[in-house]
Amino acid sequence: MNDYGFVRVASAVPRVKVAQPNANVQSALELIKEAYAKDVQLIGFPELAVTGYSCADLLLNNHLINRAEQALQKLLDETAGLDIIIILGMPVRLASSLLDGAVVLHKGRIIASTAKTFLCEESGERHWFADSSDIQDGMVEICGQSVLFAHNLIVGDKKMAFSVEIGEDLFAAVAPSSIQSVGGSLITFNLSAFKNHVGTEQLLEDTIRMQSARCVSGYVLSSAGEGESSGDHLYKGKSVIASNGSFVETETIVTEFGSLSVSDIDVDALKIQRTRNSIFKELKGNGVLYQAEIPEWRADRLICNISESPFVNIYAEESCKQAFDIQVSSLCVRMQNIGAKRAVIGVSGGLDSTLALLVMVAAFDRLGIDRSNIIAVTMPGFGTTDRTYQNAVNLMAKLGVSTKEISIKEACKQHFADIDHDPAVRNVVYENSQARERTQILMDLANKENALVIGTGDLSELALGWCTYNGDHMSMYAVNAGVPKTMVRLIVLYAANNIFPQDIKPYLVDVVETPVSPELLPADNKGNIDQKTEEIVGPYELHDFFLYHFVKSGFEPKKIEYLAEKAFEGKYDRDTINKWLKIFLRRFFGQQFKRSCMPDGPQIYQVSLSPRGGWLFPSDVNSLEWIDEL
After folding, report:
1. Of the N and C termini of the chain, which has fewer Cβ atoms inside 10 Å?
2. Per residue, what are the HEC states of 82-108?
């Protein structure tokens, strides 16, 4: 099966018995078998999992260290037939020194070892372990095998490599995982014995999340738990799996031998992001690479969650709050910088113009400019329905802006006559002439009033080219240009619930519930919208998903299709996703010329189609090769 760049990892927290290596190895073995049955490729265990972390002065007794090696040999024998890489914490003897170490096991062999770089003073680790920073990388003998020992150990090949750090190494000013990541490690395993104190759990989680973001890596922590001594500290037992700044959804299995958290990390996405990150281009890591093949992907389904709404990278409400504030702040800055005091907008009663109007009102309020300086124009045409018209009129009145109503019907009829177009032929000429007439009115009115024309088109429309060139495509500042359609809906609802008076809310909610339409074709015989955008170009939730993963993630079409099947399982089948993805690619490539001359507008999310620094793309690239692989 194609892994599409995913690697399945597990964080194991076994139930330990302090200073009883055989029992601890048996618990580890049972969790390894469970993980293997779940198609895990790499599994990490806590710090000193073979002996237990809280052995204290028993660690100075040779009997315990000898028993630990004997137990490790038993584990090697039992896992020789399992194609899974095991990262296990245990004391490692090196000459006359004892190290707080880790061993990497695969198919009955110890393939490499490492040790903790920064010993914890609070726990008295220096009393038992030597400072490994002065020990040279080289070979160490464990269980009769000559094994590579390296501080910044990286294991893997060109396709995938991982590294190991232990406990407090994570909190160092320059953590080993930072050096290892720059050196090529894509996933860090942290073998830890986290002490549960008030407030420290949140600190640990925040540090892991941010370290995975800094290193553009996966991060898998396994921390000691049940069975450790509670004489001075509580070892709660904790598993955390993060990737590039976000926690990854896990599947948790609890057994009598301990717990297992399993998830999938998209290392392909990490590699793509690193190619765009100047840190990884300019710095060189000092890690020691041990060449080893990572076990093959065996799973037939993904465990990790694939979000339907990748643009919501934080809680939806917080995302909407931040997005609206960026829009408002950007408009404020533009108006202040050019000395503008007035602005013009066309209000249709649809989603985009409603959001743009709300942004303008909030910006004028923040600047202390009276709302009457917002000139809102409704321009009924051949397809305007009573529903959208009434919403537009009521919103403008409730918000206290200056209003104008200018019908475009007669002007368009005159234009049809001028160019000898039969108005009964409702083709692109019929539709686009209305959009261009509206833009002409707004531009001329702006000149008359010494005002700015505020654009309403959103990021999704720009991606699909679903805008009329030199019509609604143009403005003097486009406040929605960085907002995908799915987020426009959410931001309008957020504004209705949190920013504007409740007497406006019914109109805003109805705008959100109205089918998206340019309303350039006449309504049906019941007066309802007949021209529905999503029936023509496809569901915006799919197109926004495609857009994010094509531009931001940099994925090939086949992987985007695969992820969409997972994200929209039960909502869209494979054929439907395939159909709309092909249309997305065809339109995205073919409509670049519209984006090449788009007006200024703020970037809101991590995807920008601005030709001035967002999406740099020639207008004449053919999409056939991209579509052919689907």
Report:
1. N
2. CCCEEEEEEEEEECCEEEEEEEEEECC
Q: Which amino acid is residue 198, in one-letter code?
A: V
Tens digit of each residue's pLDDT (9 = 90 or more) over 173-220: 999 999 999 889 999 999 998 877 676 789 999 999 999 999 999 999
CATH of domain 316-628: 3.40.50.620
Class of domain 6-291 as given by CATH: alpha beta
In 10 A of CB 616, how many CB atoms?
Answer: 9
CB atoms within 10 A of CB 276: 11
- At which residue do the structure tokens 């990790």 appear? 304
Write down the pLDDT at residue 305.
Answer: 86
Give the separation between CA 131 and CA 149, rounded to whole angstroms. Answer: 14
SS3 state at 201: helix
DSSP 444-492: HHHHHHT-EEEE---HHHHHHT-S-TTTTT--SEETTTT--HHHHHHHH
Name the percent of the chain lying above pLDDT 70: 98
- Stated as kind and residue range, the H or E segment containing 192 is strand 187-192
Quote the CA–CA distance of 133 and 560 in Å, as a whole number. 45
Nearest to 344 by CA among 312, 376, 296: 376
Residue 77: closest CA among 20, 9, 22: 22
Query: Could you give the 3-state DSSP secondary structure of residue 589?
Result: helix
Could you please report the per-residue DSSP string of 202-264? Answer: HHHHHHHHHHHHHTTSEEEEEE--TTS--SS-----EEEEEETTEEPP-EEEEETTEEEEEEE
Domain boundaries, the chain: 6-291, 316-628
